[in-house]
Amino acid sequence: MSRSWERKVERNSKNINARRKKDGKDRISAPAQQVDRFKGRSYVVPILLVLLMAFFIIVSQPWSSDFQQSQGLFWGTVGCYFLLAIFYYLRRPFLSIYKDSLETRRFSGYKRLKPTEIRKITVQPGYVTIETVKGTNWVFSKLMNLYPIQAMGERLHAFATANHIEWEKKDK
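The structure assignment produced for this chain is given below.
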């Protein structure tokens, strides 16, 4: 199906679902969009937070008699740093590749790129770089976030070919 036809089908199914909702009926099933999601694992920020927590404990020396702070508040702060480290470890970074867009989560929320917003996709050993027309480039690293770069590169190559995006593969 062409994209304009897919948009028409999506728009009409949205109208029909709204009408069916008013009538108290179930929704018609929306066509499932194929998505490939590549997940990494963030370990750098949690390690930095744990090291910061250890530095805070060593510098403050809560075991000494000269400790001038509240014990409960101090250990509560240390515990919050530890919980934040666990949160960042469990919150896995990802790259979702749809038929006509790419999506990832950054510190400021979910970001989506359409093919017209992508200048070039570069794959090299250990890294995938998506150069955008406007804004910062998206870099996915095996070293920093343990992404499966080989599988991502193959799927991004298919995405670039289908959407006529410049593709480059570098070998050291």
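Interim note for the steering committee: The longest strand covers residues 118-124. The beta strands are 36-39, 94-97, 102-106, 109-113, 118-124, 127-132, 138-141, 166-169.
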